[in-house]
Structures are given as C-alpha cells and as structure tokens.
Amino acid sequence: PAGAVLFMTGMTPHASFENKTDIVRWSMDLRYQDFSVPSNVGEIPEDYTPEREEVTMACHPNEAYFVIQDRNNPEREMHDPDEFARLRQEWDDARIKSPGRGWTPLEERTGQG
Fold it and tell me: Residue 103 has what DSSP assignment?
C-alpha cells in the first residue's frame, strides 16, 4: 500500500497504541501555526496559571513551542539541538495542567450524569 494521510484539528481526540504487527509504523507530525495565534514562544512554564485568560494561551501549553523560521526576527529561530532538548525538558518537567484547557467530561457539558 502507498500509505495514508490523516488531517486533524487540535480538538480531535486521538491516541497511538502498541503496534502488534511485524511491520514498522511510521508517523510524522507536521504543524503550522501563524504568528498571530497565541503560543508559548519566549515564555516560561510558570507563566501558565489558573488566573490567566484562555485567549492568551497556547493551544497546547504543556509542550514547548519553538520557531523554525522567522524572516522578520531570525534571532528567534531554533538551530541548536541541545537548546531544543533543554527547552522541551524544561516544559515537560513543569507538568503544566493547561489551565482552562483540555477535555470537559460529557456529563459536565450536558448537565446529565
């Protein structure tokens, strides 16, 4: 088979489970985000508090965002793999709970339980 492509939004519940076949399963996650959309570039994990307004938060604040290319501000670009690893580890260690974000149980949304 030639393979497949799957397009999802940030609101699509999804998961990856154990591959029980003898074939390697490859996955590539490519994302684009316009600079006008909130991100956590240049922020620290402690910036995410329950009091923060949701509209100012990154879509997935518990992961470090980084810039691949910025023609207007090239100093923001990530080129150093060690710095990338440090940044990802810092955000992973922070265990941000995504204040105001995440999935709401159906019974909370519908008032049924």
Answer: P
3-class secondary-structure state, position 91:
helix
Alpha carbons 105 and 113: distance in angstroms, whole number: 10
* Global confidence as pTM: 0.59
**Closest by alpha carbon to 102, among 44, 61, 70?**
61
Q: What number of other Cβ atoms are within 10 A of residue 100's Cβ? A: 16
Q: How far apart are CA 87 and CA 73, in angstroms?
A: 19
Q: Which residues sit opposite 67 in a β-bridge? A: 77
pLDDT value, residue 71: 92
Residues in the chain: 113
CB-side neighbour CA atoms (13 Å) of 66: 17
